[in-house]
Amino acid sequence: MTLAEHRMQQQQQQRRMFTAALLALVFLLAAVSTTEAGKKEKPEKKAKKSDCGEWQWSVCVPTSGDCGLGTREGTRTGAECKQTTKTQKCKIPCNWKKQFGAECKYQFQAWGECDLNTALKTRTGNLKRALHNADCQKTVTISKPCGKLTKPKPQESKKKKKEGKKQEKMLD
């Protein structure tokens, strides 16, 4: 076999391989598009319609104390509902301001200046999060005592005090 014949054979073999690869690609694309078309033709499952209402949850009641683990009761209505009441575990974070509802979380601003008439300072909180559709106020205001109100004392420098004591000792 001559070199030219050998090259021709190699070229023919390469053409066959290229044709086979091209046919495989076409076959693969046809299979994928048929699969996708088959998915579209399938009738969609009808969603189950239920006459059960949405769950309505009570507030979380701590097992002990005023925060930590507890339970809440849920109810819903509907003639064909298998379950119309249930109890769920819940948790009330101990660092929340419970005076506004244990399930209402507020983002508070910095404390304001002390009101000298009432000796209180206040700050406002905006609702950040309400658990389980709790009925929370959008904004709340809290107050606390200002603390000790002291009149500023005129301070003598320590150096002057020491000098005064030294002079007293010298006079004695």
From TrEMBL:
Spans annotated as Disordered: 144-172
Domain Pleiotrophin/Midkine N-terminal: 39-100
MF-aspect GO terms: growth factor activity; heparin binding
SMART domains per the UniProt record, alphabetical: PTN
Superkingdom classification of source: Eukaryota
GO cellular component, one term: extracellular region
Record bears the keyword Signal: yes
Function, as annotated: Secreted growth factor that mediates its signal through cell-surface proteoglycan and non-proteoglycan receptors. Regulates many processes like cell proliferation, cell survival, cell growth, cell differentiation and cell migration.
Listed name of the protein: Pleiotrophin
Lineage: Eukaryota, Metazoa, Chordata, Craniata, Vertebrata
Gene this chain is encoded by: PTN
